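Bench notes, afternoon.
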Amino acid sequence: MGRKLFCDINPVTYKISVRKEIMLRHIKNIFGKEKIAKTYSKEELPNIVKSHSSILIRKLVGVDLKLQENKVTNILLACDKINGIIIHPNETFSYWTTVGPTRKKDGYKEGLVIGKNGMKSGYGGGLCQMANMIHWLVLNSPLEVTELHHHSDALFPDERRRVPFGTGTSVCYNNVDYRFKNTTDQDVQILVWCENGELCGELRSEKEFPYRYKLIEENHHFRKEGEKYFRISQVYRLVIDRKTNKEIRKELILDNHSAVMYDYSLIPKEQIREDNYVK
């Protein structure tokens, strides 16, 4: 048996390790070469690149509804920090530089967070949904994702899912960030707000981009490997010429092979394939 990592010795050493990573990120932000977007405008840019909405409160098996309700408060606070931000050409959007720390004294409540040893409650919990929203908007644009941390496991069964599985991102203040760079020749803007029980978002630009984008999921199924079930699929992005409506290319952006972490009885039987799996 190998030696334990310092962060694995006990809860205290884990907290020390997290603080160290946060400090290292602060130092990197100070001395890094990225120009982080910090400009806001109340005036909306005229062209909608992509709009999307997601349900704020879902029925998640085994999750305290109070944590879901608290998530709404946390997302409203994050909306105030993000809404209207302008990302100029060659600037980078940083989720945590924009949102800042999620402390109790700033009004954040305990929501669901995914930690080293599984799901738990923590202040600012639920803000992954905001990061997922922004990432989905960016995937439907020519902007370049520069930092992304995928959820490696299938944590919950589908509950009115509107996007392909696996197209979200993990975030944890502040060392697990989500970032994208504006590699285009025009300003872009993010608008986010809540209404009618949904988180709503728009990515806007000064003028239309020459291409539009469509994400599709193929080969979706569940498979048993040994004693565990895994969720399998591939997610592709289609790049389509806006003038001719012709597909220019098809890009594989995600090859899902995610361990199912919820009750196996909730897996739809018709989606299970009995493939002969060789480890």
